Amino acid sequence: MSEPILQIRNLSTVFSTRAGDALAVDAVTLDLNAGETLCIVGESGCGKSITALSVAGLVPYPGKVVGGEVLLTGADLRKMTPAETAKVRGNRLSMIFQDPSSALNPVHTVGKQIAEVYRLHKGMDAKQAEAAAVELLGAVGIPDPQRRMKAYPHEMSGGMAQRIMIAMALACQPEVLIADEPTTALDVTIQAQILELMRQLQKDFGTAIILITHDLGVVAEMADHVAVMYAGQIVEYADVRTLFKSPKHPYTQALLRSVPSMGASQDMLEVIEGRVPQLTNLPEGCLFAPRCAVRRTADESRCTTITPDLLRVGPGHHCRCWLTAPSADESSREVELV
Questions:
Q1: Rounded Cα distance, 193 and 157, in Å
Q2: Ramachandran angles phi, psi of 39, nearest 5°
Q3: How crowded is residue 53: how many other Cβ atoms within 10 Å of its Cβ?
Q4: pLDDT band for position 30 (cuts 50, 70, 90)
Q5: Is 43 exposed, middle or buried (0-12, 13-18, 19+ CB in 10 A)?
Q6: Would you say the C-alpha torsion 283, 285, 288, 291 has a positive or negative sign?
Q7: Could you give the angle at the alpha carbon of 174 between the alpha carbons of 172 and 179, nearest 5°?
Q8: Which end of the chain has fewer CB within 10 Å, C or N?
Q9: Residue 66 has pLDDT above 50, yes or no
Q10: CA 281 to CA 181: how far, in whole Å?
Q11: Is 131 left (phi over 0), alpha (psi -120 to 50) or beta?
């Protein structure tokens, strides 16, 4: 089996605030293989987007990556100089942001912004870059690409602007694409078109994708593997079929139960009581314990005092929960992280 194209090892990010340090990403470890899609899911505020920004080296002030490695084909992005990072970002590793209207520069035409990627990373002259940009706009489904080259971002619809962002991200055929909730602000018809576009471009270019989302329908449609995040930690990791068929962590189970299903007799959607803890005042033990409805009564002290590790509970399946932790007679077995 070949090495993963992207290896994230114990990645941690802290935000310094007046209330204290907030650990937004807590020792996240993940692998991403070429041509695969890894979905990261969880509630708002669980650390999905900050994880993505930490990988790309774009954490905003006052945040700071304080530990871990981000290995792209073996090279640690965190050890690169700013100049070296600039050559990688947008070239070998690209990112689609959640809100294209704020990510695109409003004072430049979309054609100029796409052409700039080719000029910076491919060394093309202005004429070559413009021709490549027109071709790419056509590839992502923009009608009349030659005319759209002269349009400004505010003249584009939400779906059109998102296609422009995808075009910019894929201009250099990156090895890794990070998409941070790329369909959140779009209606379901445009959402389906954008997801189909990402699938087709992944097939054409072999790009590995990290897809950040809170929509489990998107996860079921797009993912090869899924990482469930809660309060900055990965609490469950599995292939998509295993996660939907046999979720182990109470948080994952609660998320799945909160999704409406066709034909089910369901008066009200199930909700997860409570809220994600403040990152400056995290509870002891399992971070989900204060909201967990199934923690063991006899072992409640363990849930609320000792933090569980992310342990192997099956082939390629890992869970951070005392309910699924290996028993004493299994303690001698090798336990691997994701």
A1: 14
A2: -100, 135
A3: 22
A4: very high
A5: middle
A6: negative
A7: 115
A8: N
A9: yes
A10: 27
A11: alpha
Record the tokens describing residue 327, joined without a space: 């028993």
CB 182 within 8 A of CB 198: yes
The token pair at 216 is: 């489990």
Phi and psi torsions of 95, nearest 5°: -140, 135
> C-alpha angle 147/151/156, rounded to 5°?
110
User: HSE-up of 289 (CA within 13 Å, CB side)?
Assistant: 22
Burial of 67 (0-12, 13-18, 19+ CB in 10 A): middle
Confidence of residue 329 (pLDDT cuts 50, 70, 90): very low
Say which residue the tokens 């990482």 belong to.
227
CA dist., res. 242 & res. 328, Å (int): 25
Asked if residue 115 lies in contact with residue 168, where contact means CB atoms within 8 angstroms, the answer is: no
